Amino acid sequence: MNVDRITEKLNILADAAKYDVSCASSGSKRKNENKGLGNASNGICHSYTEDGRCVSLLKILLTNHCIFDCAYCVSRKSNDIKRAAFTVQEVVDLTINFYRRNYIEGLFLSSGIFKDADYTMERLVRIAKKLRTEHNFNGYIHLKSIPGASDELMNEAGLYADRLSVNLEMPTEAGLKLLAPDKNQADMIKPMGYLKNAIIQHTEEKKLFKKAPIFAPAGQSTQVIIGATPENDSQVLQSANYFYKNFNLKRVYYSGYVPVLADKRLPALNTSVPMVRENRLYQADWLMRFYGFHVNEIVNTQQPHLDLDIDPKLGWAIRNMQTFPIDVNKADLQMILRVPGIGLLSAQKIVSARIFGKLNWDQLKKMGVSINRAKYFITCKSNEFERRDLTGNNIKQFILAASQSKYLKNAQTQLSLF
Amino acid sequence: MTTTLLYDGTFEGLLTAVFEVYEHKLGYVKLAKADKHTKAMFEQVINVITDEVRATRVLKGLKLKLSPMGVQRLYAAHLAEMDGEENILLGYIRYAFDAGQNIEEDYGNKFVMRVSEMVRMVRREKHRMEAFVRFQKLKDETFYATVEPDFNVLPLLIRHFKSRYADQRWIIYDMKRLYGVYYDLHDTQYITLDFATSNKPSEVMAAFCEEEVIYQHLWKSYFHSVNITSRKNTKLHVRHVPKRYWKHLTEKI
User: Fold this and answer.
1) What is the pTM of this model?
2) Are residues B23 and B85 in the same domain?
3) What is the ipTM of this complex?
């Protein structure tokens, strides 16, 4: 093994793959059979990069040679960078040896498009197949579906991989046309549609026949780049919602655009990464998936952007003061979940615990409720509660004054009048 | 009058202490580990002698009062070995016995809430170990890792590593509590290693197989390549990977 050459390739191809934010390794139920190697069940983050992102999978490109010229991508054809390509065996060896040392949960393999879509997809599938059949590897495999690949290849990919994903890249078709003239959204959606139906079909078969093969058990995901084109949060979340609803996606990832290339269509190189906006989009995404919020409650034509100072749940609450206060000892779980400062776990704890006796502030605090925020919206077994008739804006000011947001660069202190 | 019960720190010892409480109809009790306790003047002390039969009886009773998950959670909380927290466990068990219904979800009760916090701490540590164990391949094809977990979570790790690495021999060694787990392709057993005979650095290096250095090097360079410098966030990084774990992490050494 030529260590220097492999190291160089790994550096180039890991560096090119790092802007793909997905690193999930959960959601699969693959078991270790016949004393093979590995299993995939609950995700484990084996390490974290210095920017605080999880390292769970060996995330690499097979090659960064690419025939496309997408403006936002470091591997675009016209960019003058070092190119490299792994052989099938090299990827297999790296995966197995990293896995055995407990560095990773599995492999996330993507690729620049060389020659054509099918040719590229076939290579990706071959690696997954080799890992599964020759090395009895049951760890997690995430393959990128190359837009335009044939249904036969997508089917084979689904049989070996745990998750497949196509990156939509831009929230709207117009944005995509602007920055990636070689790609079109229909090509991306086609494999997604095929996989959605195949996953449904295989799940049905699995119910009838225990021996039926598992097919992409961790489902599909996608990624959109935020801040490269002028779409507003409403457009981003509406399109995420569309794909959750129509393609049964497991996750939509929002990737704040990191300026890596000078191009007149893109934000300048010195613009900062929109990290706060990205964070607020994820919070909104969680509200849609776990808290029972409809996308129109979070953003709509009157509210096209998420408030960067406060989280979207608090934003919704102060726009809907007529629903509060609620009594945590009586309200339904659905309603408790909508209270700012109460998360999924504490909401469930409240509902279980109140059967034994009414809860007071002290108990709520111990359960993990953030009283600082929740106190404006709830009542409990106590004579103390918010008696002032506060407007949403007052509450926002009180909460902002009491909390030290990690995002506020300068502390905002209100000047006193006298 | 408060009675102090001294026990040996084991789960069986804890259960025997519960037996004593009911046997002697004790009201106010304080539980403490025998080796950590200094006797106060006029203190009434009972030395609990761990008794398997009595412990089993208490466990049987507990199983009637709690779900199987509840008993497991209690054991996990015990593994935290936090000083003074045995009184919380004792309080929890007494509350479970004295109540007419299953109290596992009564988070308004201070014992139930505290036990649920302790369980969360132990589980978090278990999960961290599943992530932070870094095996090194030895000449004889055994994969060896050392850890220093905050709590005694090795017993909780066996199932995960056994099902994941079924086709390789491995050792995970707890350097803080000086014992380890060894998997020999069929079963696991607890082991203790004698490091005194082989502490020369040259011998230690010779024990690793040649490709070990290469893969450690590759892993380190991978770790550096995936970092996005313009998003640097050291605070978040350290929150996820606290510094006390760094000395056992290949990529952070």
Assistant:
1) 0.89
2) yes
3) 0.90
